[in-house]
Amino acid sequence: MQKGLFITFEGTDGSGKTTQLNLIKEYLENKGFDCVVTREPGALDFGKKIRDILLNSDENISDNAEMFLFLADRAQHIDKFIKPALNDGKIVLCDRHVDSTLAYQGYGRNRDVEMLRKLNNIAVSGVIPDLTLLFDVSEENAAKRLDRVKDRMELSGKEFYNAVRRGYLLLQKEEPQRIKLIDANNSINIVYNISKELIDELISRKSGE
Ligand SMILES: Nc1ncnc2c1ncn2[C@@H]1O[C@H](COP(=O)(O)OP(=O)(O)O)[C@@H](O)[C@H]1O
Ligand SMILES: [Mg+2]
């Protein structure tokens, strides 16, 4: 039986996922909740090696290789970290998860989304986010925010960015109960207030069950 809460943070690079995740962690800890922060890819040592290959490889990584590397990281992460934390009653805040695979590999790289869903299902073995916050931001705003050295994924260009963004929006329309759309073009504080409200709602719903 899962006692904790699994909350994922999704959106394109520069949408503010990490910023909001850190704010929400502080918010929940101040309220006395036991919270853990994690991310995909690359939370565990196993995953760090995978992340390094994915983001920094000089070799041209094939689409299939990329897909299997992400999924391998996810399977290990779920089994060895997320599931045990949820069983301990923790709130798990995860930076990117199953929807990233569907948005990036599926809609971004034009792979079969239904096939990816099936592979995701194998990797997560029944662990589904209780809530997913989707931060949606325009390509222009994201580009303005990302002035640091761009990694391989971020170098893929505007067209790819917009395909991923559209993919995320489609996913949200299919699962509006789980995935909540947040206009992340707004200020950090406005986005934070919306995120807090959605998380408070989830906590009160779950504690009433
Ligand atoms: N709502 C916002 N408005 C303006 N700048 C933001 C906003 N959210 C985040 N940023 C800034 O944009 C950059 C990327 O944010 P980050 O949280 O790392 O995004 P992500 O994790 O989605 O890639 C950071 O410098 C952050 O301070
Ligand atoms: Mg981030």
Task: Record the SSE blueprint.
Blueprint lengths: L4 E7 L5 H14 L4 E5 L5 H12 L6 H25 L3 E5 L2 H11 L4 H12 L6 E6 L2 H7 L12 H17 L4 E5 L4 H20 L2
Parallel strand pairs: 1-3, 1-4, 2-3, 4-5
Helix pairs in contact: 1-8, 2-3, 3-5, 4-5, 4-7
The structure holds adenosine-5'-diphosphate and magnesium ion.
How would you portray this structure in words?
56% of the residues lie in helices and 13% in strands. The protein is of the alpha/beta class. The chain has one domain (5-207): P-loop containing nucleotide triphosphate hydrolases (Rossmann fold), CATH 3.40.50. Strands 2-3-1-4-5 form a five-stranded parallel sheet, sandwiched between helices. The chain is globular and about 50 Å long. The structure holds adenosine-5'-diphosphate and magnesium ion. Adenosine-5'-diphosphate binds next to helix 1 and helix 8.
How is this structure best summarized?
This protein has eight helices and five strands.
Computed CA radius of gyration, to the nearest angstrom: 16 Å
Residue-averaged pLDDT: 93
What is the CATH architecture term?
A: 3-Layer(aba) Sandwich
Task: Find the count of extended strands (DSSP E, 2+ residues).
Answer: 5
How far is the N terminus from the C terminus?
A: 14 Å
Unreliable runs? none
Largest sheet: 5 strands, parallel
